[in-house]
Amino acid sequence: MEVSVDLVKSLRERSGAGVMDCKRALQEAKGELDKAEELLKTAGLAAVAKRVSRETREGIVEAYVHSGSRIGVLIEVDCETDFVARTNEMKVLAHDLAMQVAAMSPTYITEADMDPLEQRPSEEICLLQQTFIKDPSRRVQEVVEEVIAKVGENIRVSRFARFALGE
Questions:
Q1: What is the mean pLDDT of residues 78-91?
Q2: DSSP per-residue string spanning 106-164
Q3: pLDDT tens digits along 39-67
Q4: At what angle do helices 33-51 and 19-28 cross, to 10 degrees?
């Protein structure tokens, strides 16, 4: 099946995937945009699983101060190369994660970091298990995995600190 350039462009804008990947997905989906996007997402998640073990030695530190200057967050988000650290996707992710920490006040990054005596549910206190504040239908881990698939490198939240007046 021949796929139009406009259809490829539309899928590329929606998914952020490469031109050839979009074309292949559209051909496989017989021109159905939603099905092609789902195919790209599935392929991206498979690629994410391969990247998880890679070392992250570069990254960025994002500072966020909530309006009113009563809550502030510093968060370190690591990736594999300084090239990816400078991308807009990485900067937006770090900012969104800092806002998440300010709003939801997690204690740990993952369930593996939790104190064995902790009684609160991991969905409340683990950053990556929390519901994403900008899109309640997704978890923070899913947002991070989407960026991993888009930039093609492993991304890891290394640490964060939340400051609030009176706490």
A1: 95
A2: -SBSSGGGS-TT--S-HHHHBGGGSBPTT-TTSBHHHHHHHHHHHHTS-EEEEEEEEEE
A3: 777 776 556 566 667 788 999 999 999 99
A4: 120
Question: Is this prediction's pTM over 0.85?
Answer: no
Q: Structure tokens of 127?
A: 């950053």
Which token pair is 33? 């945009």
The token pair at 12 is: 């590329």
DSSP 71-121: EEEEEEEEES-HHHHTSHHHHHHHHHHHHHHHHH--SBSSGGGS-TT--S-
Catalogue the long-range contacts made by 74-77 (C-beta closer than 8 Å, 24 or more residues apart): 74/98, 74/160, 74/161, 75/101, 75/157, 75/159, 75/160, 75/161, 76/157, 76/158, 76/159, 76/160, 77/155, 77/156, 77/157, 77/158
